[in-house]
Amino acid sequence: MAKEEEHPLVKLARRTIEEYLKQGKVSKPGIPHPEGLPNRAATFVSLKKRGMLRGCIGTLSPQSPTLEEEVQRNAIAAAIQDPRFPPVQISEIPELEISVDVLTPPEPVKSLDELDPKVYGVIVESGWRKGVLLPDLEGVDTVEEQLEIARRKAGILETEPYKIYRFKVQRLK
User: What are the chain's domains?
Assistant: First the structure.
């Protein structure tokens, strides 16, 4: 997708990563608030390079005063703090496919019938351990697969009890 076609929050994420890698600091968002989105929300910023995940970090509740600042915070974290990957290099920025997911507040799940991996992301929680999986991910087609991946991410054994929460996202590209 040409950068001109990117959603304003995706452009903001890209500009923020570039600015941070070049200057070590970030300027104010400087964009009008996108219509139809909440003023504050949890977000995830996902980075892909040649179709492969390159970084993904987010929040489950808003940590910043505005949605735009939340995107900036998570864009930097996805670029340099995802422990699964080395920090993004400036030379990689043009190759990055960036998406921003704006999350609804999580709600408890009473029955697995309330889940659909194409519609809802999940949070599994046991004590202090928490695993999150965004919705509509390639290769995740069943509720069981979605929960298993989230559980493994949290280090929760199959035999352990855990709570399940669901959320929706508005995925911006």
Answer: 3-103 (3.30.700.20), 107-168 (3.30.1490.150)
- The Cα 132–Cα 18 span in angstroms is 27
**Pick from 87, 90, 73, 93: which is nearest to 6 by CA?**
93
Q: In degrees to the nearest 10, what's the CA dihedral of 151, 73, 69, 34?
A: -60
- Stretch 6-22: mean pLDDT: 97
Q: Which of 6, 4, 1, 166 is nearest to 75 (CA)?
A: 6
pLDDT confidence of 85, banded at 50, 70, 90? Answer: very high
Nearest to 146 by CA among 136, 161, 155, 156: 136
* 57 alpha carbon, distance to own chain's centre: 5
What gap in Å lies between CA 158 and CA 118, rounded to an integer? 23
- What are the backbone angles phi and psi of residue 94, rounded to the nearest 5°? -60, -25
Query: By percentage, how much of the chain surpasses pLDDT 90?
Result: 97
171 close to 121: Cβ distance less than 8 angstroms: no
Sheet strands side by side (includes 107-108): 107-108, 163-167, 121-126, 129-133
Residue with tokens 């910023």: 45
Distance between CA atoms of residues 88 and 141, nearest Å: 30
